[in-house]
Amino acid sequence: MEITRKGTPFKVEGTQPAVGEQAPDFSVKNLKDETIELKQFNGKVVLISVVPDIDTRVCAVQTKAFNSAASAIEGVQLMTISTNTKEQQENWCAGEGIEMEMLHDTDASFGKAYGLFVPEMNVLARSVFVIDASGKLIYKEIVSEMVDEPNYDKAIEVAKAAR
């Protein structure tokens, strides 16, 4: 698969999971250095917002938009994942006054499990996944142009309907 950044193509490694399949499990750390695995959220709807670099404008907009919308939905677990370091994510959250489940995928293990790693830039492709309470992937959007925002409304609509 390929995505673009301001029109320049970049190769995305791996195979993305398909809607209807069980979502691949993953193991990454949050800002408290706790290991977070998808299987911990069995029985809950999970919305995963993936951003290439939290310290860029579109990633900040995406993270704030999902944090604002999804945090108000009872029964939905929101998590944001990027390849940024823990310190970069902590600094961003502190600067924005936001507390949320922010996961750092510095070794790209999540990115490789979901087929999102862009090795040339050492980032993950901008994307959104919604996983139902049984662990099945029910929505995915991989944004083809990195500087474009995802479809917030559609992802939130699917997450709400899955509760």
Automatic annotation (TrEMBL):
Entry GO MF terms: peroxidase activity
Annotated SUPFAM superfamilies: Thioredoxin-like (SSF52833)
Residue ranges of coiled coil: none
EC class of the enzyme, as a word: oxidoreductase
Keyword Oxidoreductase set for record: yes
UniProt KW Disulfide bond keyword: yes
Name by which UniProt lists this protein: Thiol peroxidase
Start and end residues of each Thioredoxin domain: 17-163
Protein keywords: Antioxidant, Disulfide bond, Oxidoreductase, Peroxidase, Redox-active center
Gene that produces this protein: tpx
Enzyme Commission code(s) on record: 1.11.1.-
